[in-house]
Amino acid sequence: xxxxxxxxxxxxxMTGLVLAFLYVPLLIIAVLSFNTVSSLSWPPxxxxxxxxxxxxxxxxARDALIVSLKTAAGATAIALVLGLLAxxxxxxxxxxxxxxxxLMIVLxxxxxxxxxxxxxxxxxxxxxFEFGLLTLIIAHATFCIVVLYNTMLARFRRLSPNLEEASxxxxxxxxxxxxxxxxxxxxxxxxxxxxxxxxxxFDEIVVTTFTSGAGLETLPIWIFRNLSRGEQQPIDTVVAxxxxxxxxxxxxxxQRLTSGDGPLTGGTR
Amino acid sequence: MTSxxxxxxxxxxxxxxxxSRWFHRHPRARLVSLIGxxxxxxxxxxxxxxxxxxxxxxxxxxxxxxxxQKVIGAQNYRTLIDKSVYLDVxxxxxxxxxxxxxxxxxxxxxxxxxxxxxxxxxxxxxxxAAVLVPxxxxxxxKAFSWRAIIGSPGGVLDRTFGVSPNYxxxxxxxxxxxxxxxxxxxxxxSGLERLPDSLLDASSDLGAHFGFTFRRVVLPLLLxxxxxxxxxxxxxxxxxxxxxxxxxxxxxxxGSVVFDNFSADLPFAAAFAVVPVIVMVAYILxxxxxxxLDNL
Amino acid sequence: MKxxxxxxxxxxxxxxxxxxxxxxxxxxxxxxxxxGDGEKALNLIVxxxxxxxxxxxxxxxxxxxFQDQTGCVVKSKIAATSDxxxxxxxxxxxxxxxxxxxxxxxxIDAGLVAPVNTALIKxxxxxxxxxxxxxxxxxxxxxxxxxxxxGANYLMWRTDVVASPPDSWSVVFDKTSPYxxxxxxxxxxxxxxxxxxxxxxxxPDLGIDDPYSLxxxxxxxxVALLKDQHSIIGEYWNDYTKTQSAFEQGSTVIxxxxxxxxxxxxxxxxxxxxxxxxxxxxxxxxTWMISSKAAHPNCMYMWMDYITSPKVQAQVAYYFGxxxxxxxxxxxxxxxxxxxxxxxxxxxxxxxxxxxISFWATPRKSCLNGKGNDCVPFVDWIKAxxxxxx
Lengths: 269, 296, 390
Prior knowledge:
heterotrimer; A: mainly alpha; 11 helices; globular; disordered C terminus; B: mainly alpha; two-stranded antiparallel ribbon; 13 helices; 74% helix
């Protein structure tokens, strides 16, 4: 489709402004990570590498990172399985409660985090569960399911049903069809959805506050702790900058996997 | 050319084949085996906790604040209705959420359109990645750095332009709009991707100039995607309390009241938490018609 | 349909399960008779900075030496408010807590903490006497905790904006204040006591004696004052770095703060002064308390003794910015950090100063000052605070 030069420039200009809006605060964060002053204030008063050095050697940051990675991995794994199962069911069957199930799966991400957080907190306490990595993973998995569910559904809608029929005609039973035909077609959507769920869990703070236990810190909780101490706030800017730079990798991978599809959902063309 | 046709042998079947045959004969079992685990998880864990939360909202704190009396009564809800402050807070929060959503819509549309329709494939991937990367920068650090940006005097905006919203509702709206913007851009972008170029071509062939096409062709078709994005921005704004605390000045929202009461008076916090649940459930049920739920 | 019935059953079971539950109030229990062998673990609820293990700043670590010494592996959960501490203690999953007065009283009332046998704590004898047997850490002659450290809530202002040094809290309660929009106050219901403390002097016919024991009339007056104050407030704070950055920036110029905020902000260049106004100040005195259901009581006693030893007290007080409970820490601070003025700045050994502070305590119906049974309970303070903030 051909657009006039005016339209191109107009939209290009607006895009530039929005991108600037998105990135200027991130640049400020990066700049503040070199600030000599220990609080997050502007303008920067000097240049120092001490926060970067401190962050690199910080055992607290490393431990928190590991907890975050474990939580996100566990939550994504559970969400993958449950999301896939639910999407299969919803796509292939019409049944009583289908719409309610759809609504139910969407709720954890549609309801504000604080509601999910205090509900799960109260529920775990009633059930007598000790707060720890398990409660954390369970909580995170609950709001990650919808991401995988939607990704899978979107991909299913794209797939032609003929492929599976052909496989069955050729003699494969249900599980063989799934393993050799359906699953390979789902792989990229699974990966893209998984990456998004991983990212959601990784930066989550609200539900985490209510469902983690003594001494268990995810990276956002560790960041929060540092923001509450006046002596080393800039260490958080270092961590944020590093995570952001590293995140380019999974974001780029997800992009290549689903190019032609939507950036996240796997597309429904 | 010879071709080999594989015929299933009528001999002993593998366990996979027997299971497959059994499932084929019992479609309901097939459904249950698929839906069982996720449904059970969501029902017991999530709906169960929400129900338990609602039950807690019917309890009350004993007078010295040392414990919860498990006696059912509507006193918390009566307080919510009697004292005008809670309605004020709820209305204010919804207002903020609506404004943030509208701002994000306005900001997201041009960039999503540009990426989806105007630029070529290579740039497209780069720009989409550029929109997604800010989501990975820590929410907390972003919110805290906005303190340094909008503070007045002394913040970045104040020093650069001499004018700044300072900590308050306006500043809060700016920051929330910033934080949730990628969540609005992405569904709109997906929706635009799915919009066939031929429609736009047809419209211009029929004589419409771009503005008309955009308003009368693109936007109506984009409605489900826009509404899908609004679910995120609305819900995130409705429940936020951390960014509010950092840049909202003395603004009190639903999230702040729930959080403040959580440790001290859980039943009351639970009661007030029911408010955003009702709002969001109503919103979601309302938008089902637009097909937005398929675009989340 | 069957699925619907199953769903209904599941939900019903969940509801039933949540409705049942332990209603019995935990009894306080008995104090330990002797410290036995360590249980190899310890779960604590602490204020940020009270149990440092080197993960924030490598130089500040008093947890690892404790672990090496006693074999008790420490896991600490940081709480942001006293209310959160109370809520966490009620889960009975922790051994101890560093409670301020506005949670310690509630903890004792709820039977969540056990009496402490102070004879088992070697360092107890050295602790400042004005911290012992107070209404926030003892009851009916039984001691419920070990003092940790304390501090006052000061009035602080920027000297480049506020011309003449104020000597009264009236400057933050004045509706016509020239600093409107740049005033701050502590963001917690307990701040109502600050208003009451001011009214004790400003409106003596209200008859306020103890700002934590208020009858309805006194309480309403304090709330009305705070509702008026709301119009001049720029920000409320309970996360002290928030107000620290605000003072440094200049978006806040006057209000309630802690000494540590002044220290940090001054290091970053802000021109600030503090004072305890003539009406007096509220403050906080923290106590280590042991859970009545502690799974690791021996380790908890070992911790209580360790944290009150001079060297550790020095580290904590210096890092956090408070007055140590053990005056012997003052000499240690001078040795460890070449700072001979810490205890003077924080008035650690100044008994009359400490006595002039109204330390945080949770209000209850049966008045804390023992003068009646019609005081406004804390539940109402919480509700009022939401209304004040509007």
